[in-house]
Amino acid sequence: MNKVDIFKKVPEFKFEEKAIKTNPEEFCKIVESRRSVRVYTDEKIPEEIVKKCLDLTLLAPNSSNLQTWEFYWVRNKGKKDKLVEYCLSQPAAATAAELIVCVARPDNWKKNNSMMLQLFDQKKKEKHKGAWQYYNKIVPLAYNQGPFGLFGLIKKVAIFFRGLSKPTPRGPGSKKEMEVWAQKSTALACQNLMLSFRAFGYDSCPMEGMDSLRVKKLLNLPRQAKICMVISAGKRAPNGVYGKRIRFDKEEFIKIVK
């Protein structure tokens, strides 16, 4: 198999997915009306809407398409009551129609990469050499940290010296950096979930105030799993938003590089 520069070369295959016509005004309405809602009414969210929102969640962009996330829609009443308690019984959890635990799974990169490789038969390996090489060689090299993180340490040293002379990807180079890597993709999906609920006329609140250890035990999650946030959802109550949105001067955050 010939060597392919997978980062610079444009893939040569016949595939086109045309962008559909969109309504920017409607999108702006969704983004601008999304608020962190702390109190909900008693109105339920139809099951099919929750399922659709979760489907849209999984369409979020993610690193290397390895999809290192999991979303736990807690429907069991006993477990939901416990989850409310573990979210410190805050109104955003206690009054919510639904609670979804968003989990980053950096430990699943190898399993998910294997699923990507299974999509390639011999014909596709030849036709999509760059993609095959990426998942067969680059992904294991990039994300495998080795026993006790030793391979990651070796990579850090090698990357340091390579980076002295040319642009070089710098990470992830440790298990901690793998956690950050997975959390970034999971957080992107969380935004999809919250905007999806808003699009269907419901609201949400991302909660980090929780006992993550107890939440992990409640869901029987492995040690490597990391709670990103718990998202509550429901119909906004009249007192659901505690005040006007506060945003500082945009010049503080948006920098134009000339």
| Low-confidence parts | none
CATH class: Alpha Beta
CATH architecture: 3-Layer(aba) Sandwich
SSE order in H/E notation? HHEHHEHHHHHEHE
In spatial order, strands of the major sheet run 1-2-4-3
| Apparent shape | globular
Mean pLDDT across the residues is 94
- Rounded Rg: 21 Å
Helical stretch tally = 10
CATH topology: NADH Oxidase
**Kindly, what is the distance between the CA atoms of the first and last residues, rounded to a whole number of angstroms?**
43 Å
Topology:
Elements: H1 24-33, H2 47-57, E1 69-73, H3 77-86, H4 91-94, E2 98-104, H5 109-117, H6 122-127, H7 129-143, H8 150-162, H9 175-199, E3 203-207, H10 212-218, E4 226-234
Antiparallel strand pairs: 1-2, 2-4, 3-4
Helix pairs in contact: 2-9, 3-10, 5-7
